[in-house]
């Protein structure tokens, strides 16, 4: 089954909202080196969604690190979405540098924006994050070949 274009377009808007909300709530790690550092230190929160955009053309070292990050995510049950543009990620988050990946962590329980206990007793997903996870689950086999297009504005 191929992921429908309408689903991909809707997902771009949801991902944008999830990025902004996670940044506001301090549940977002931006940038490959920061993500790797965080995961290597055994960060206490639960990483849920890894968002990856293509690195700069010809940046082989970053590509190899992203492949390793992707393998880590797959082994540890972290959902991966491929996005169309590192520039859009950075623009949405008002980052000072262009970064090709971001990692969203689950909400600690008790946040009023969360919907139920999805991961375990202590961590929850927001309604938007739950929609993204459901999309990942429904399209698991096709996600590697699909690119989510973030909104231009």
TrEMBL record:
Limits of the Ribosomal protein eL8/eL30/eS12/Gadd45 domain: 15-106
GO-annotated cellular components: cytoplasm; nucleus
Entry's Gene Ontology BP terms: regulation of cell cycle
Xref: InterPro entries: GADD45 (IPR024824), Ribosomal_eL30-like_sf (IPR029064), Ribosomal_eL8/eL30/eS12/Gad45 (IPR004038)
Pfam family, one: Ribosomal_L7Ae
Assigned protein family: Belongs to the GADD45 family.
Record protein name field: Ribosomal protein eL8/eL30/eS12/Gadd45 domain-containing protein
Annotated source species: Polypedilum vanderplanki (Sleeping chironomid midge)
